[in-house]
Amino acid sequence: MLTGKVAVITGSAQGIGKTCAETFLKNGAKVCLSDVVVDRLQATYEEFKLQYGAENVHQIPCDVTDKTQVEDLFKGTVDTFGAIDIVFNNAGVGIHEDWESVIQINQIGVIRCTYLALEYMKKSSKGPGGIIINMASFAGLCSSPLDPIYASSKFGVVGFTLSHALHADVVDSGVRMVALCPTFVDTTMIDDDNMKYFIEKIGVIKKEKLAEVVLEMVKDETNNGKCMVVTAQFHYYKDDFPKVEDVFLSTKQS
Ligand SMILES: NC(=O)C1=CN([C@@H]2O[C@H](COP(=O)(O)OP(=O)(O)OC[C@H]3O[C@@H](n4cnc5c(N)ncnc54)[C@H](O)[C@@H]3O)[C@@H](O)[C@H]2O)C=CC1
Ligand SMILES: CCCCC/C=C\C=C\C(=O)C/C=C\C/C=C\CCCC(=O)O
């Protein structure tokens, strides 16, 4: 159960973010919903307020590419609920004609939200500690010619999360940092004819199943610096990323 915990989820007006918000609420957390699409955010807020109670749900519109809006998101959540224990940096876009905005939203947005969330969560700032989950993708672990920019943005999220988790600012902060790498999930993001071939081959993860994995990640207090891979068939922490000292040691020995 997440009773007494407070979660912020970016991009939670629909899709994976919305389903995870509902799973957190069902497990007793208080949730601050957030999205750049204000009318859809309002509709999701109204729906959850009716179902889970106004005292448990809050909404703050936020474009993750805007530093002031991200600051207002975390400050506003603390002002409303008293603290932040869980941040799910989920907001993202798929195939997009403006490649620079894909990097801005999917990669730089996650980095910005991580840095600012840490300021409110770390124990040295009198925060409660907790977990920051950064949404990457299976496309952040392998070459994906279908969309090199999307893949690049997600490789960036994996690299940042696994590296920052070991940084001195994080190791003693009480905050865990974890990357999430699903294959295809049943949202409107995969409504694209070019993906049909791959989807038929590897299947589709149900949002509700992915949300259960996210809940498992929140509850696991030993997962700092790990990377969760989720497929339609199974999920596991990928643990074969070399650490920099391993690379240097093996170079010295050869
Ligand atoms: N659907 C899939 O197959 C997979 C999705 N992902 C990732 O999961 C995350 C969520 O995607 P889905 O739920 O599938 O897509 P979605 O399109 O249903 O949801 C994404 C949400 O992010 C919001 N958003 C977009 N730009 C934003 C910005 N600048 N600031 C704040 N919010 C913004 C959208 O308005 C939307 O509500 C994305 O990061 C995506 O890359 C990862 C692996 C697989
Ligand atoms: C893989 C590019 C997808 C573009 C964005 C839209 C949906 C995102 C879905 C995912 O993040 C799922 C990730 C990976 C699926 C695994 C492999 C697909 C490989 C496709 C390729 O060869 O390019």
TrEMBL record:
One Pfam match: adh_short
UniProt keyword annotation of Ribosomal protein present: no
Name of the featured protein: 15-hydroxyprostaglandin dehydrogenase [NAD(+)]
Reactions accelerated catalytically: (11R)-hydroxy-(5Z,8Z,12E,14Z)-eicosatetraenoate + NAD(+) = 11-oxo-(5Z,8Z,12E,14Z)-eicosatetraenoate + NADH + H(+); resolvin D1 + NAD(+) = 8-oxoresolvin D1 + NADH + H(+); (15S)-hydroxy-(5Z,8Z,11Z,13E)-eicosatetraenoate + NAD(+) = 15-oxo-(5Z,8Z,11Z,13E)-eicosatetraenoate + NADH + H(+); prostaglandin E1 + NAD(+) = 15-oxoprostaglandin E1 + NADH + H(+)
PROSITE patterns assigned: ADH_SHORT
MF-aspect GO terms: 15-hydroxyicosatetraenoate dehydrogenase activity; 15-hydroxyprostaglandin dehydrogenase (NAD+) activity
The entry's keywords: Oxidoreductase
EC numbers, comma separated: 1.1.1.141, 1.1.1.232
GO cellular component: cytoplasm
Known function: Catalyzes the NAD-dependent dehydrogenation (oxidation) of a broad array of hydroxylated polyunsaturated fatty acids (mainly eicosanoids and docosanoids, including prostaglandins, lipoxins and resolvins), yielding their corresponding keto (oxo) metabolites. Decreases the levels of the pro-proliferative prostaglandins such as prostaglandin E2 (whose activity is increased in cancer because of an increase in the expression of cyclooxygenase 2) and generates oxo-fatty acid products that can profoundly influence cell function by abrogating pro-inflammatory cytokine expression.
InterPro entries registered for this protein in UniProt: NAD(P)-bd_dom_sf, Sc_DH/Rdtase_CS, SDR_fam
Superkingdom as given in the UniProt entry: Eukaryota
Species the sequence originates in: Magallana gigas (Pacific oyster)
PANTHER family: 15-HYDROXYPROSTAGLANDIN DEHYDROGENASE [NAD(+)] (PTHR44229:SF4)
Family indicated by similarity: Belongs to the short-chain dehydrogenases/reductases (SDR) family.
